[in-house]
Amino acid sequence: MNANANANANVTITDCGDSALVAKAVGLDAEDAWRLVHALADALDAVRLTGVHDVVPTYDALLVEFDCTRTDHDTVRRALSHEAARLGPNPARTTPPRHFVVPVVYGGEYGPDLPEVAAQLDLTESEVIALHSGTDLTVRCLGAPAGAPMTDGPPFPRPVPRLASPRTRVEPGSVAVAGRQAVICPMPSPGGWPLLGRTPVRVLDLHRDPITVYQPGDTFRFLPITPGQWDDYAGLSLADCHG
C-alpha cells in the first residue's frame, strides 16, 4: 500500500490491492472520526463515480471497491480527496437519525448465554437486561451477515468475551453482545457472540431496496417482553417499530 497525501489533514488514503482504496480518519476522537468517514461515504455515493461498485464505512475508515477495468486508483483517489476536502473535519449530518424500539424476550431458550454473561460481569440477569435495554444504542455500521446492525454496546462494567466455541447456527432476530458492541442477527448464520435474547420482529425485508430500514446513525432501544407476548409482535417488521 502506498500512502497518498490529500487536502484534508484528517483523512489518509491508501491503495488496497488492485481494485480498492481505504480512506481513514486520523487525528480525531472516535465520534468525530465515525461521523467523518460516514459523511465521506455518503458523499462518494452521491458522486456515482464510474466503476465504483461498493463503499463500505466502518468506525474510522471506509473501503472503496471498484472495477479496475473501468477506473483506477488515481481517479478514485482524486474523487475521495475532493470530497474529503469539501467536507472538512466536522461535517454536519444531512439526515436526522431514526429511532427504533425493538421488543426482546431475554434469557431462556431465547437468550441462552444471559446467565454466563451476568456471571462474567458480576451482575444479576435482571441487571444485565436493565443495562442492555435502558439506553439508546447507535448503529455504527452494517456488518455481516446481510447488513447486520452493529451498535454501541450497553454500559456494562467491562467488555463481554466471545464464546469459546462459536455456534454453527444463530437464529434470526437473536440479540447478542461482544466486547463493547451489540448486534441483532438478521438471518440464520454461525456466530460466536453471546446471546442475551431474541426479537420476534423481522429485521430484514428482502423485497425492498435497500433490504434494511436502518442506517448508521439510527438508534435502537430494546424493550423487554415476556415469552407470552411473542405472538403479539411476530409477523411485524422492524419498520413497524420505527418510533
Automatic annotation (TrEMBL):
SMART domains named in the record: AHS1
InterPro entries, per database record: CT_C_D, Cyclophilin-like_dom_sf, PxpB
Protein's name in the database: Allophanate hydrolase subunit 1
- Give start and end of each Carboxyltransferase domain: 11-214
Determine the domain of life of the protein's source.
Bacteria
The answer to whether keyword Heme applies is no
What are the GO MF terms of this UniProt record? ATP binding; hydrolase activity
